[in-house]
Fold:
Amino acid sequence: QLQPLGLEEPLSWAAAALERVDRETFFRRFDEADAVRYFYEPFLAAFDPELRKALGVWYTPREIVRYMVERVDRVLREELGLADGLADPSVWVLDPCCGTGAYLVEVLDRIHRTLKAKGEGALAAEELKQAAMTRVAGFEIMPAPYVIAHWQVGHTLRAAGAATFGADESAAIYLTNALTGWAAPEEAAKPDAAQGGLRVTYPPLANERDKAARVKRERPILVVLGNPPYNAFAGTSPAEESGLVAPYKEGLQTVWGIRKFNLDDLYVRFFRVAERRIAEGTGRGVVCFVSNHSWIGSSSFVVMRQRIVSEFDRIWIDNLHGDRKISERGPDGRTSETIFAIRGFSPGIQQGTAISLLVRTKPRVGLARVLFNDRHDASSAEDRRGQLLDSLTSEAFDAFYETTAPSPGNRFSFRPGSATDAYVGWAPLPHLAAIAPLNGLMEKRGGALIDGDRGDLVERMKTYFDPGRDWDSVKGEIGGLGEDAAGFSARSTRTRTVEKVGFQEARINRYFLRPFDSRWAYVTEAGPLWNRVRPELLRVLPDANGFIASRPSGVANPEGVPLIWTPLLGDDHALRTDAYYAPMLLRGDGRPRANLSQAARAWLAALGLPDPDSDPAIATLPWHHALAIGYAPAWLAENEAGIRGDWPRIPLPGSADLLTASAALGARVAALLDPDTPVQGVTSGTILPVLAAIAVPTKPGGGAMAGEDYALTAGWGHAGKGGAVMPGRGRLLTRPYAPDETAAAAEAGHLGSRTHDVFLNAEAYWRNVPEQVWNFTIGGYQVLKKFLSYRERPLLGRPLIAGEVRYVREVARRLAALRLMAPELDANYRACAAAHRPLPVVG
Structure:
């Protein structure tokens, strides 16, 4: 049977390799607990790293597997009334992406322990074997882990004393694509539909296909569990998936106004398989996945959450943290290590993850109760996994969880947080604008078009556009502009742009890269120099009079203030992860006009302000008002869930006087947010006493900073893959306020009860950075820490200069001044909320 496949030679190679193995030593090592993990990731990483990456393959530590299986067993007993849990003969289990069989083995182990506890004695092994052959099933698409899964289940059965499989017997593990072949029998009759349209001529594979199809279409699956693969760039759902995730996209644009989303991630497809199988198929059951945690709060997944909260009775979420993109630290603040990390073996999946347990007991009425656990507070990955297991012994298990309140107002977010009842009725930020907020520029050229030093950028771009220099001579001097990227041919792009345009110094613009981190950028629409140059944003720039930058949903934890003001052209990732820019003014016929929607204009008219186009001061009132509301701590605290799940919503004052007073506060906020605008008492003139002692450049024991004292080497950032800069832990000394810092201490309610000394290096630091200033976060970026992370000496290539050290001090004072505005901002927010006038319905 193998002969037509032409495998004789590679099989002979494999046999020859195996003959060199010292079997006694090998199997003595292989029988150790969890030894199979040393096969899975290292083998795939060496054998086919691209395949491993494409399929999102990561080993799941046994503690996580055991926790999930034990939780499923407990829920079957307590919620579905099955006294024997997984051991009940009516419980059919499927791991649709079983890998090397970790979950199947753990389920069988749980069944075996239950059977022994019931006194099954010598009968337990045969019952266990029958379960492994029939109702504990696994699907796997890759042959190597599929083989290991069979071996692991066989090993488990042998250890339990079960008879070996006969000639026509095997574990219920099938080589198949779990995302296809669930169609009705008449559809499945199409040639080889279950194998994704591939022609299956090898009889054992055809037999495998047929057995898998019977599980997909006929078995009353009650439990779906596992660790589905993660890959947000796995491509769109293939045709044979029959629009698998289409239900999760319905109404995203028309109902929710969400234009950008990625719902074809592999793990999302597996959620849809599980939901369809349990909610629409069996009608009751359990789903338990550990997966990317984006789906529990991100706006892209609002329809997915709405369906799931409508289809299930109870939902438990265990947030496992570990988001590499933001170096997310666990609740204890000590580590950003993923809970999947195994020291000396694997760094684990570098993605924020969560365990989701969904239970359906009966036909649904109303929405599920959602419980969220964010309290795993141990430091190391091992300790956090141990904490999961320890929690299983608790009788009052739900005490670990906080009940959340998914609703249309918070886009059915499963994360805890609040929103006032009135919040849903307030105006979303884009509803104030005549044009939809515009995406920022996207470079994707390794920073070659952006620089903190104007002179360096000018020289690099002059080199790039020099027609007298050939490609080989300039390639090493132009950074990422010399490297090919997706859709970008570096050499041909240079050839075209040099022929059509030359260097133009007027193209050098100040550029808003991140909050309080402005650079210089060479901005041109010529060729695809920029990945996305956003011509529409360039067109409004001359008349914009500044931008409010915000985002359609929160992505970070903490998210912080969700909007900021800037007078500059801005970057797409100035906020995490997408920054959208609403200009205050638009280009009109001969003069700028207000960027205000017809509804916003009608609201102003009702306040006695009928013609905003005639007066820029009136045109900017709504935008400055939005800033005043957005920086009010009470607004942020009372509406956290709503703010995270959608565009910020702003209460609109019902009188011109209230609007004018609020906008005046917002103008003060805008001045503090613009590093190029001096602020009396904060950065210029006589500094307020409470601010004068904040972030003072200091040397231990006194003395002047000089030479290497300016080098930032405290570990605030380091180079990551692909040129990315990853935040580091740095060096921070937390302490009470000193006697000469009494002015700051007197404002502890706004600045924090403790302060920090933030180190440049072993010889110098910024003295007295209050904790609420240090923690100030805008759009997901911790402002001061993010700024420092890009300026470590190995990244910057030089020490800081005195002006840069002084700039950090000024930013800290600006942030402190924003904190000190809290009483005024909160009072203004409450007054505007109490007198809210909804936007009129126009047209």
